[in-house]
Amino acid sequence: MTTSMSMRMTRLRQQLLSSSSPIYTTLSSRLGRITTTRHLPAAAASKRRPLSTSSPTAKAKQLLLLLLIVFALVLLIRAAMSSSSSSPASDATAAAPFENPRTVVKKLLAESQPEGQGATVRRSIGRHELRNLDPFLMLDEFSVSKPAGFPDHPHRGFETVTYMLDGAFTHQDFAGHKGTIRTGDVQWMTAGRGIVHSEMPAADGVQKGLQLWINLSSKDKMIEPRYQELQSNDISCAEKDGVEVKIIAGEAFGARSPVYTRTPTMYMDFTMRPGSQLHQPVPEGWNAFVYIIDGEGVFGTEKAPRVGAHHCLVLGPGDGLSVWNKSGKPLRFALVGGQPLNEPVVQHGPFVMNTRAEIQQAMEDYYHGRNGFEKANHWSST
């Protein structure tokens, strides 16, 4: 028997000794005697009586011993193959949920600026550094206290989505619609051909929220105005592996928002506990961005630097976004994506159309009170 074979037999004997089975115990003792015999000096070995091979009982025992050795070797080979199947390469494949993950291609800190009447907003999309991100026209994080606010003003050609983070805002328009949205509520307003409305604080203290402007295609710019309003308990929610999501539009974790998006849109409010990670699909071909509300996180790739609150992160192309919360505090952010319209954008304040002539027409309609603005000259908010 070679040295290599001797070592294998020794390891096999050690493994068999760990079993309480009488068969394995007997087998291990026999293996020990065989191994010892093979290592005896020639003179000593010659004095030992040779094994009798003529007895049927001896032949049966040798055959059983051989079968047990083969069986044990098969088990060892299978165990080795099983451990090799969970190699680092396969683990790396399992940890990569997207074939083409989205990464951050632009980072913009939303800076404070005056807006409305005495109000302050942090604007990211809509500034000269990021004029728009088709189909998104503007994103404001507002922080407003009485008596400041956004008194009577018109809109045409797009939608506004107001999401209250804290506090309450009262909205009323020239068509008689009036309501108050509170913490966690959403108002999805389609301005269409024209609306005049006001948005004012409805409680004492600081009222906080996000307002997103979404463009409408040329065929929808002159539709009748409409509203979709959701209270916080009507918004779809889900939780998975330390990540909570409120789904304002679109789908996440198997839950879907009831909101109808005329321009295909996803809008989600994620909160991630420390140490958690998220892998959220985003339709390919859509433009998407992240706005960090609170905390700091790692976006796109695990080795990317951490980014903190009030940053807008524009995402590159791909099929999904990965996020890691490596801090000791919760991370909260909005993930927004939309299908590009690929149409010309001409904007003048609250009017967004496709041509300069259409902008001029909107201004004249508002001034003369026609073509959707008939009630504009005879109404004011209370």
TrEMBL record:
Q: Which InterPro entries match?
A: Pirin, Pirin_C_dom, Pirin_N_dom
Asked whether the UniProt record includes Nucleus among its keywords, one would answer yes
Q: Which residues form the Pirin N-terminal domain?
A: 120-214
Q: What positions belong to coiled-coil segments?
A: none
Highest taxon of the source? Eukaryota
Classify the main location.
Answer: nucleus
Q: Which residues form the Pirin C-terminal domain?
A: 267-372
Q: Where in the cell is it found?
A: Nucleus
Per the record, its GO cellular-component terms are:
nucleus
Q: Do you know which CDD domains this protein is assigned to?
A: cupin_pirin_C, cupin_pirin_N
Alphabetical keyword list: Nucleus
Family, per entry: Belongs to the pirin family.
Q: What name has this protein been given in UniProt?
A: Pirin-like protein
| Organism lineage | Eukaryota, Viridiplantae, Streptophyta, Embryophyta, Tracheophyta
